[in-house]
Amino acid sequence: MAVWDLSVTVEDLGSDAPPVTISVTSDLHVGGVIVKLVEKTQIKRDWSDHALWWDQKQRWLLRTAWTLEKYGIHADARLVFIPQHKPLKLGLPNGITVRLRACFSNPVFQTVMGICRMLNIRHPEELSLLRPVEEKKKKKDKDLTKEIYDLTEVPLSSVSRPCLYNGMPAHFADSEKMEVIYKMLSVTQPPPAPEVITKQYRPASVVDKAHINGRWLDSSRSLMQQGIQENDRLWLRFKYYSFYDLDPKYDMVRLTQIYEQARWAILLEDIDCTEEEMMLFGALQYHISKVSQSEPQNLSSNAAMDDLDSALQCLEVKMEGESSSATDLLINVVVCFRPKRLTLKGYKQYWFKFQDTSISYFKSKEESIGEPIQQINLKGCEVAPDVNMAAQKFLIRLLIPAPEGMNEVYLRCENEQQYAQWMAGCRLASKGKSLADSSFQSEIQSIRSFLAMQKTNSGSSAAASDESINTHSLVSPRYHKKYKPKQLTPRILDAYQNVAQLSLTDALMRFLQIWQALPDFGLSYVVVRFKGSRKDEVLGIAPNRLIRIDLGVGDVVKTWRYNNMKQWNVNWDIRQVAIEFEGNVNIAFSCVTADCKIVHEFIGGYIFMSTRSREKSDTLNEELFHKLTGGHEAL
Amino acid sequence: MEDIDAMFSDLLGEMDLLTQSLEQGTVPSEPLPTIKKELNFSIGFTDLNESLHELEDNDLDALMADLVADLNATEEKLAAEIQGLDKPSLPPPDLPAKGPGALPAPSGSSPSPRNSTGSSTVTPPPASATSPLPPPPPQTTKPTKEEMEAQAKADKIKLALEKLKEAKVKKLVVKVLMNDGSSKTLMVDERQTVREVLDNLFEKTHCDCNVDWSLCETNHELQLERTFEDHENLVEPLLAWTRDSENKVLFQERKAKFEVFKNPQNFYLWKKDKKTLKDMKDKDKEILIKENFSGTSIIVPDLEGVLYLKEDSKKSWKQRLFQLRASGIYYVPKGKTKSSRDLVCFVQFDNVNVYFGKDVRNRYKAPTDFCFVLKHPQIQKESQYIKYLCCDDAWTLNLWMTGIRIAKYGALLYENFKTAEKKAASSSSWTNRSTPSSSSSSTPSPTIKAKAPSQANGHAPKLQPGPVPQDFGDLPPPPLDDFLPPPPPDPALPPQPPSLLSKPAAPQRHPPDSFPLPPLGLDSLPPPPPPPPLSDSESPPDFLPPPPPNAGFGSLPPPPAPVDSLPPPPPPAAFKGVSQSLPPPPPDPHFLPPPPPDPVFTGAGAPPPPPPPPPPAPAAATPRAAGRPAGSVKKMPPAPPKRTTPTLQGGGGGGGGDFMSELMLAMRKRTDQ
């Protein structure tokens, strides 16, 4: 057989170095080419990660047993000998960039699996990579100074065998630097400064939202094939809103990153919510940031010990409840009040006493031994603050249910201290808890810290110390315009009282639950043109259904559920997706803002997600994923 | 009839006495009044007397049975608590000396589960605290004086806590209207859920137990109606009724209650055409339920539509476009879009329930008859805080009311449905099995449960040799001063508990138990007739004097032997059962004056313990058993006097405050350790 010369560029020799030329025959297999090549370079090193890339055809020669003939390689082929893993700058859902070595030769699906293994995120099938939105030039300068966490030193071999050490993968336990990175991954970021939110790109319409989905990489092809270069920037995001088996015990990084993605989706109005919901999201963000700062993660806390502790605590509380000192804690405080109906009369001073879940008031301290003028049980009542620090106004508004309706009562406190105590007491009592409840002190604390926020917010708007958070950091820019931080504080505090007692993971989970309960949750939009229609419409792809949105009306005009779907096809020649549903319903559309492969992958991906079940959840059925999402290329 | 009335008031009197004495223990002033009030408060009657007169004979019987059952259950609980206490209290002193730290652990673990379960229903937390501490069982026969004192104190504390808890439980006599116009009267305590009351009614009515059976409340004044959710406690909403209200509780089949789980498509795919909905395959229904109720978040049907809203305090109705979201009901303000950010919150669900409004056309000139109402459960009369909304048709009304319930209760609804389904599936066998009489004896389902376990325990208790040893040590010599050193109880006892050695001791102590639990009556003991039990309960004190442990010892056969002879169940097994059921712990406890119990225990335990140094293993076993043994013992003695107990308690109660602080100290020490 004829011997001919094959020239190969070896990247490691430097960009200026001439290609290495070796003599080959057409029946030589790729493995043999590599051996010859390595011998010729005379460099001793570990070449195991290197492979041949065929530049003209944009493909990897990964099958080392295949001959050159089988690959169709002739003397004119430009081959490059390069490592399969290269550094990549990866923007995480929490906005932080890490640099790590990712696989450039396998399909992106596997690349993501590798990245997730390194970052300790389970269920990598829910994530994917997308090209970032170009940033405005001004910001670029700033970005360069932004810290990048470097993970390129992590040996790839250690990642393939994950074992936990101190609750984190062993490669994070190697050094302090690595531990810092793990903390960044698994602990939520502090609320961003309001300016950061305002400056970020916000989609203004459904069509805007659709554009982002054109950026997803193709899961069936490699990074190299999609033109991604070494050190390029990509985003890692949760793509499929179907979070399987989320367990805080194993999923701290995953949970944290889902939360971050959800938080940004809400702050940037990627998903719409009502004002009440926004306040609750704000309250949860505040609580989460507070708790995650103060609560070192005790991942290894012993469940049995917890039980015992809580049992003991419960007992103590019970007993405290019986001891008079605790019950009468607020006995000697004077406040004023007025029933609302006597508006004109203003406030009158009484001697108040707080006991169990009731308040009673007397004409004076001296008479407080006898019968009160009135006793009011606060259980089930609504408590609202009416506070103005500057004016030293500390009002507690109580809406007390009675058979005849709700009675409105105002308590006016003299100072911050008194207000915090009584407010905390009222809040607990409204939930049927007495002052002896263990949460009383923490309730007081949280009320005071909110008061502190009001104080600082009236001054500079950017102050974001531990104690005080600018409430504009917790809501979308729409509310920056609508409310001053001072006005937002009481509203967020109002929502906060319902979540203040949650643990960190419970608060994270609650945030995700409310997010998932939003009507538009889980929708990824693509602008399409339906067959037979002459105008653009929007297709919404959700975990369980497809919706058709009329851009003119802005309304959902049709819904199709996957479980009624009989089959779907892509005509790759005319780039059209055709779907058949039960009952002889057929739809077909071409895609405008995204390649039809992306839509195909979304639909197939969600069907794949729904096939996951507990029994087989251990191993990821990669083959099935590619079958469902790959299209003709996979076959 | 009059006789019955007399009996009934006697019974109530007894209960009052009991509760009073309980109250004395710790909460001097408050509890007493409350309790009385509650006892007298009956739902569906103008006053207690009337309610009693209205009772049919058989109802009365049932009610009495309930009351008796309650008493028993209370006693059992107390006994259990006390036993639990013994162990825990011991540990501190013991540990240093004996140092068998290992042993306690196992026993401790077992108790803790109990506590957790128990606490949810009946048992108070204290039990849990105690459990962790299980002291080493194998003690010398003679406990040190310190130990005994500690023990005694712990007992008292436990008892006091239990009393407190018990004293605070509200009970209502509730008249429930049946479909056929008849009615049943039940005693419901505040811990009972609607589900439990339903189960109870199933037993009484022999209905088919299908999932649609519901309890509903009607508000006469406002002409409202609402189906209680199965997880709700029944007493709480009833307490919101005004005294003179004509509100009623109905027992009816309500298709709407769980319709969403039978035909989820009608709610989640309501926009589809009728035929598609009707032809929905079961598999697709399952998928819908899974999607909406089994994920991390409960999904609320996306409802949106024009409803009529009654304007405040006017008889005019205004149309608005409303939207249901998980966070509440919103409407689209005039001239705004439907976008989420423009929605105005109309109501959130934390503080309101959803009702069906009747007769609204006449009352409020409503545009349709299909009206739902949102109000705070405590509001019972006309008020501007009640919100009325009208739908165009019955189906839309159903959609909204169900949607609101899903938003308000979330996963609980689905849990309720699954429980109801299970109940329905097992109902046939259930109904067949339970004879009317049996059911009556255990009217309140909760109580029933409690009893059942306790009974089972009853056997086990005897077995519980383990506990005995411990107790033994403590008890024998220095019966606490507080307690009655009951001198010659033995003589009295012997007669009663002839059969089992172990029993004798028990009987003395636990007489109270015996009355309540006729069934418990150990083999040997002739179970006293149910009625007598009551009287017995009061008398028990006399017997109480625990027989000297030694005596018991001698008489008693070696521990193991007794076990074998003992009735049936192996103690450990029984124990487990108990622990699960725990909530309603052993019945006996309550009555026993705390101090006395120990002595008794010892007596009871004595039999097994005879071997002074009990093997560790047994010891472990014993702790668990401890609770039961007491129970069993009690059963033996026919007629002990609950009353006496109360008095005793009263004595003990005097020191209540101290005990509390002592207990706290003890707990702290433990935690420190």
UniProtKB/TrEMBL annotation, chain A:
GO MF annotations, alphabetized: integrin binding
Stretches assigned to the PH domain: 328-431
Species lineage: Eukaryota, Metazoa, Chordata, Craniata, Vertebrata
Organism field: Kryptolebias marmoratus
Family designation: Belongs to the kindlin family.
Keywords: Cell adhesion
Pfam families: FERM_M, Kindlin_2_N, PH
Keyword ATP-binding: no
Protein name per Swiss-Prot or TrEMBL: FERM domain containing kindlin 3b
SMART domains, A to Z: B41, PH
Entry's Gene Ontology cellular component terms: cell-substrate junction
Record has Metal-binding as a keyword: no
TrEMBL record, chain B:
Residue spans of biased composition, Low complexity class: 96-122, 425-447, 619-631
Domain (PH): residue spans on this chain: 300-409
Spans traversing the lipid bilayer: none
Stretches with biased composition (Gly residues): 649-658
Gene3D superfamilies assigned: Phosphatidylinositol 3-kinase Catalytic Subunit, Chain A, domain 1, Pleckstrin-homology domain (PH domain)/Phosphotyrosine-binding domain (PTB)
Keywords from the named record: Cell membrane, Cytoplasm, Cytoskeleton, Membrane
Biased composition (Basic and acidic residues): 143-153
Mode of membrane association: Peripheral membrane protein
One of the GO BP terms on file: signal transduction
SUPFAM superfamilies per record: PH domain-like, Ubiquitin-like
Family classification: Belongs to the MRL family.
Protein's recorded name: Amyloid beta A4 precursor protein-binding family B member 1-interacting protein
